[in-house]
Amino acid sequence: MTLKFHKPYSLARRIMIQFCAFSVLLSVVFSFYNFIFLYTLEDSVIEKAVKNEVRYLKEHFDKTHQWAKPRKDNMVLHFNIDTFPEVVKKAYRQSPNEREFYGENGLHYHMQKIQVQKTLTQSEIFLLAEVSQQLVVRPLRSIIIKLLLVSTLILTLIACFIGYRLSRHLVQPLTKLVNLVQDASPQDLPKSFAHHYPNNEIGILANTLENSMVRINNFVLREQHFTRDASHELRTPIAIIKNATELLETGNLTETESQVVVKRISRASLQMEQTVNTLLSLAREEHTNVTSCVIKILPLVEKAIVQHAYLLNDKPVEVEVNISANESVNSQLGIVQILIANLISNAFSYTTEGKVIVCFEHNALSVFNSGDGIENSIQDSVLEPLVKGENSQGFGLGLSIVKRLCEHHKLTLQIESQNEGLKVTIEF
Predict the structure, then answer these.
(1) Which Gene3D superfamilies match (predicted)?
(2) What is the CATH number of domain 194-289?
(3) Could you tell me which CATH number the domain at 290-427 has?
């Protein structure tokens, strides 16, 4: 199946063409009405003169009972249509209601019937005026047409120029926006461009596109983060389930030992479920609606230490926990569990010897590990994904997940790096 793409038309060109076409149409209509007005005005002047003469003749007849001779030489009183010029006679018989007739050699006639109450010898009386010498518009018709054509041409050129400038002014920001969108790639979507456009419909469109691109970019980032975070966070519970399953498959365990292994699988499965739910909440656009609850800190810390003890790998490291059994926070279990697990696994990974101290006071959890602190080369980017020190055994995702979780749930994250070691504090 072949897709056919039609060549896009220029919006600016269409605006200019329509502007010019409207100007031509307006000029033609204006010229047409000008002609009607001039002809109507000319006819009304002639008709008024003929009617005045008819009034004079009727008044004279009423006084003397005799018809006077018309005062103007171009007017003739006819008592019968047979005395009409042949052209007028023929036209009148065809159209008795007409009052204007065209003769030969440019002659032009206006006729008016005279109505009298008493006429002994005549049944119809007509006043016929030959008005070709009084015509003004018709002799100048060609000149007027040329003048109107020139005026139409000039106005059309002016309108086209205005339409061209206006279309460029209106369409240029839209063309710029179209080029920006066409040149954008999914890997590098444009950012912060809406403020470059005018505060009108185009600006609204640019702002809407910018917001959409920001959302699309966030979708892509969340998908990437979810993939990395899931791989990072699920490794430990998957390893626990795998090892426990292998132990069960040997068949050498007592019933009590089997129950312990099954509980270990159950805890790891629950941790995986909570981890997936938490990562999904980070991957969603909106905030999660999971209800918060009171969570004891010490059991989660102890479980995280046991789960990540393999990271110490017989290193001379002492783990010290200074947390009261009653210490608790009001939050979501999965979130707190991931935060604690990441802080402890990060401390174990970066500590070669010395101490790891976990404490909780003033509603803040702190994890300190002795050592050289954060390397100078990664101090500015330690919270970014895939950033880790040379001695790290992980993938450089722990603190990145901690940072994003804290931002997502409005928790305060503080990192203090000194020569004696590194201290990470989360305030709930």
Answers:
(1) 1.10.287.130, 6.10.340.10, Histidine kinase-like ATPase, C-terminal domain (3.30.565.10)
(2) 1.10.287
(3) 3.30.565.10
